[in-house]
Design a protein that fits this description.
heterodimer; A: alpha/beta; Quinone Oxidoreductase, Chain A, domain 1; 2 domains; 6-stranded parallel β-sheet; B: alpha+beta; Alpha-D-Glucose-1,6-Bisphosphate, Chain A, domain 4; 7-stranded antiparallel β-sheet; 21% strand; binds zinc ion; Alcohol dehydrogenase (chain A)
Amino acid sequence: MKAVCYNGIGDLRTERVPDPSIINPKDAIIRVILSSVCGSDLHLLNGYVPTMREGDIIGHEFMGEVVEIGSEVKQLRKGDRVVVCSILGCGECQYCKDTNWSLCDNSNPHAWIPEKAYGDSPAGILGYSHAFGGYAGSHADYIRVPFADRGCFVIPEGLSDEAAVFASDAMPTGFMAADLADIQPGNIVAIWGCGGVGQMAIQSAFLLGASRVIAIDREPERLRMAKEISGAEILDFSKVDIHEALRELTGGRGPDRCIDCVGMEAVSEGLDYYYDKAKQYVRLESDRPIVLREAIMACRKGGTISIVGVYGGLIDSVPMGAAMNKALTFRMGQQHGQRYIPRLLEHLQKGELNSSFLLTHKMSLDAGMKGYDLFNKKETMRVVFAPGL
Amino acid sequence: MENKKKPLSSVLGIGELEPDNTGSSQVNVGAGERILSVAGGVLLLSSGLRRQSLGGFLTVAIGGYLFYRGASGNCLVNSAIGRNTTDSTDTTKALIEITKSLTVNKPREEVYAYWRKLENLPRFMYHLKEVQQLDDKRSHWVAQLADNKLAGALGTVEWDAQIITEVENEQLVWKSVDDAKIDNAGEVRFMDAPNGQGTEVHAVIQYRPPAGQLGGAIMKLFNPAFEQMIKQDLRRFKQLMETGEIATIKGQPSGRESEQEISQKPSLKYADADQQHESGML
Ligand SMILES: [Zn+2]
Ligand SMILES: [Zn+2]
């Protein structure tokens, strides 16, 4: 089959590789119909998440058709059209039973790697480096999905492939961001980042009762979508001082809830961007926590900071004094997709959430590197590979 | 730097037993000869590992054997012909201890019963090839050595073990007996986790490194890898108990293979691809 393989930093190649097969009894093989690029793939491609190996197949946001199932798969049938959660959960450990799926104890075969770095291992993630399991990803004709009964969700009739594909990763991540923010009716919510996850966080915040959402980015097209489709007020950080603007827009209080949908590769116009960039370059710091600093300073006293943008390691100069003295609440994590996906498919069906507009470019697997170049330069919202093309 | 921390067994109050000093502590290769053996072994190993060819493999095999002989101080040829080139002063013996606790989300009786059937152990302890129950207390163990790069070259290590304490659903204590190649002892306790979260498994394994200062020094180098392996074994035990399968990527496709290569059927027993990968990353 064809697959988009990592070949070194900034280097993807579309290659012919063997087809996947059932390895464990709870596996399923999915014929990929659509597979989207995601911001966190860029962290892999740009070399900020170590433990990638030459030849690894990337991609983790996808939907497709079940073509083969293992002997212990009970809920799925060949021919089912499914969307698959990017994060693997076994369903049997205490974390899965508590619906904290991205903390699964059993789905990462290389748990010892993050255990060294983090003290504990999170769940395995499809196509997301060896620290997160080393599983082959979805930018391919076929993919093997472990614990398939838990991670594959049958897409209801009448829902398009283009809408359902984002229920794999961007939608549950955005929805979880709003859910963790503990939005109370009438709250004003500020959201950093207007990519796919940010757009879904805006819509979810409204769904959960926010009265106003203020979205921050600098890409004109993303800001336009945030305003016209997702319904946010928008701020361009290249044009205004975000801290000042947020205070002015909230009667001097600051937003009640602040959501970071950006994470480790944040950019800004300020000095701290160059500070982080320099430290990152000499490996004294692994991430650029610009958005996190800004959110802590901007948030109202007693407010909540919700983080779904990915951080990998150590960060400097986070204003802990501000966070403590303002009595902020922090909540964060990789998405617990299995907890949210059934509900999200319903919201999509009822038209309460809108996701298909995220798909701006559809390409064949042969255009792998080209698609990522477009995405990396933020010239597109989401490139989606269609192996059938 | 000397490690001043106490072994965890003394803190936990479990596993405070010592393996008998019978097999691996017996030395019949002299220090000078052992240094040469190790040096030669390392040289051959590192050059062999860089080549993936058959010649490379043979170099690894010979290097691995010399390395083992030097590190362990136990030469099969020497013992066969009754030769002994040891200095009498070379007898320092350190005890190495590995502790690992984890919680398995299953009832204690179920967890204990699976473990107590010792034949099950090789299903998740990948360095074990086989465990045979000889009678109620005695068992025969066959293992591959710690470092998998050496494992192929060294073949297998076998020993007999005896259960010395058994409290059903609570505690198992065992010791190796009868001239074991690697003297070892261990204890596993099973306790209820709070709030119905299943069973806490507390394991302490102690082994005597191959005798002598050189042996001790070499085993210290290997210890992190060995410890890592034991911990991975226990993690796989949890996976198997909770989900009925062991998470793996062995046998999945990548751009490292061409489409023509038949992807080999993975077996539960030896996940050597995963293990090689692990040791590569250590
Ligand atoms: Zn993602
Ligand atoms: Zn789990």
